[in-house]
Specification:
The chain has 110 residues and is mainly β. 8% of the residues lie in helices and 35% in strands. The N and C termini lie far apart (28 Å).
Amino acid sequence: MPPVAHASFAIGDVVRHRLFDFRGVIFDVDPVFANSEEWYAAIPADIRPRKDQPFYHLLAENADSTYVAYVSQQNLVMDDTEEPIDHPAIPGLFTGYEQGKYRLRREHRH
C-alpha cells in the first residue's frame, strides 16, 4: 500500500499559495487529488503537483477578486499576516476569526 499523506492544514486555517499571489481560508480537504483530469492537465507540467497528497478547497482572494481555489498541499504555506480573508462566502461557513484561523459554523461540523 502507498503511504498515507497527512494533511498539514485544517479547515479554517488561513494559507497563502507558494507560487501565486493569493491567500484563502480552507473550507474542505481531499486526502488525495479529487478534481477532473481536464483541470489537472491544464496545469503546466513543470509546476504540476503530485496527485498523492492532500488538496485543499479555499475561499480565496487576490488583489483583484475573490473565488474558490483547489490547491495541493505542496503549494500552500501558513499565512502569517493575521489579516482576515475578504470573501463573501465566509459568513455562511465560518464564525469568528482569531489568530489566523476561522471557526467552522456548528451546522457544518460533523
